[in-house]
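Need tokens for this chain, all 109 residues.
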Amino acid sequence: MLMSLSDGVPEVTPWYWWVIGFGGQLVFASRFWVQWIASERAKKSVVPISFWWLSISGGLLSLCYAIYRLDPVFIMGQLTGSVIYARNLTLIRRSRQRDGDAWGDAESC
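Here are the structure tokens for all 109 residues:
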């Protein structure tokens, strides 16, 4: 277990919270690789739907860690981002329903 300081008092953070925190950051960061690869394949800048799914997944994992750490700055940032990612997924779904397309594997939106 790793030690951290909170209000000057050492505390032990259980290992699983480190896994959640680092896991969230890893998932969140992976979205840039996905976007870059999709853009290279398309030979233009695109944002695949997986970018938004990775954004919300990584953001929510990071939000859980931020809530555990009681970090209001990190909580506000992750909460705000997660709402925006969810809204983008909703807009994509509605657009595809209007066009008669399911979620599918389209590379750009």
